[in-house]
Amino acid sequence: MTVKVKKTIKTQRLYIRPVTTNDAPFILELMNTPKWIQFIGDRNVKTVEEAAIYIKEKAFSQLEKYGYGNNVIIKKDDNVKLGTCGLYHRDDREDPDIGFAFLPEYERKGYAFEASQQLIVAAKEDYGLSELSAYTLEDNTSSRKLLERLGFILKGIGHLPNNDAELLHYHRFLDF
Fold first, then answer.
1. Using only C-alpha atoms, what is the Rg of the chain?
2. Which residue in 139, 21, 110 sits closest to 72, CA to CA?
3. Given this model, what pLDDT does residue 160 score?
4. Is 4 helix (H, G, I), strand (E, B) or coil?
5. Quick one: which of 35, 158, 160, 163 has its CA closest to 171?
6. Which fold has domain 9-128?
């Protein structure tokens, strides 16, 4: 049985809620930052309309099927959208993976750690997951450090579907 939670998660400083098409202008901005293009890849999303289509095609079906997917991270004190953090189920993988991206001005402030840590708890408690993976490029040292701080262990080299890039594959059991 699949658990379909789809809720807003709160932390000390953040709201973590599923992405909607109303987030298209923000997603467009985020997807076109230099680090997104360098480390995640250019998805050729250049308009708000294309961002809305991307959200519908990539996020909604997974959210409906599993209850989890991509989330927008929002600061509680001023409702500013900072980035995204999500759990992603890929058809050819046993365990979902966690991923995150933040606008440059909100990096290195602990937001990615805070959001990711809470999503890891939700992965176990709300979605019944027992393990997670994560993938990043070797030269993405910020993501590597964050994953290690979150308790992920480097497992080896991996690839994601429809992507030839050689990625570092991290893994974590949710045994807390």
1. 15
2. 21
3. 81
4. coil
5. 158
6. Aminopeptidase (3.40.630)
